[in-house]
Amino acid sequence: MTSGYKAKICGTTNMEDAEMAAREGADFFGVVVEVDFSPRSLTIEAAKPLFSSPLIPAVALVYNMASTRVESLIQQLNPFAVQFLSLAETSFVTYLKKTYPKVEIWQSLHLPRAGEAVDLEDFQKTAQTSVTAGVDALLFDTAALSKGAMKFGGTGVTSDWDIVKELMDAMRGTLPIWLAGGINPDNVGEAIDRINPYGIDLCSGVEATRGKKDAAKLRSLMTTIRGKHSK
């Protein structure tokens, strides 16, 4: 992995895109596993080839997955990290960290889309609870209503970056904090300049079609990210 700002290319559904992410200089790729609302979701069995010998670390994303199923996922896929899109129970995080010490635990926390109200104090308490539980990284993402249901991850929607910066500044230095939600090659430079996150996590912003990455978009994104230097 390179120095500077990190990049995780999420919603990876096939080997070609995983290899493309590595070739273009991404630091991680993410695979959505058994998430009902995601059109990019794979079963554990279908995800196995992506995790067998990845060129860069592979992260498995889950949502409200039963604890026994999470353990089965870890045992079968051996991911670099498990990223919880839903809020993981503190006791379960502690258990996973003890039982599977080589697997990192990442927690996504979702803000509303830009223009919608957010309870900053409540969000900070939730974030601090995850930190205390021992997660290895936080990801500030955007939740959005899609077809009558809330969707977490892969929304392509931005939150209020001024609020994100305030939250991130309050927690900066505690652990890596990633920015997600509506990032694309056109706004990634502004996102980095305004927020100074540990890394950028995105999915739809570099897609040609849903579930298939676009090489030109990915290259443009990574050129911008690699041109920035951590503050």
UniProtKB/TrEMBL annotation:
Similarity section: Belongs to the TrpF family.
Pathway info: Amino-acid biosynthesis; L-tryptophan biosynthesis; L-tryptophan from chorismate: step 3/5
Alphabetical keyword list: Amino-acid biosynthesis, Aromatic amino acid biosynthesis, Isomerase, Tryptophan biosynthesis
Domain of life of the native organism: Bacteria
Catalytic activity: N-(5-phospho-beta-D-ribosyl)anthranilate = 1-(2-carboxyphenylamino)-1-deoxy-D-ribulose 5-phosphate
Gene Ontology biological process: L-tryptophan biosynthetic process
Designated name of the protein: N-(5'-phosphoribosyl)anthranilate isomerase
EC number: 5.3.1.24
Tagged with keyword Oxidoreductase: no
Class of the enzyme per the UniProt entry, highest EC level: isomerase
CDD domains assigned: PRAI
Pfam family, one: PRAI
Domain N-(5'phosphoribosyl) anthranilate isomerase (PRAI): 7-222
GO MF annotation terms: phosphoribosylanthranilate isomerase activity
Matching HAMAP family: PRAI
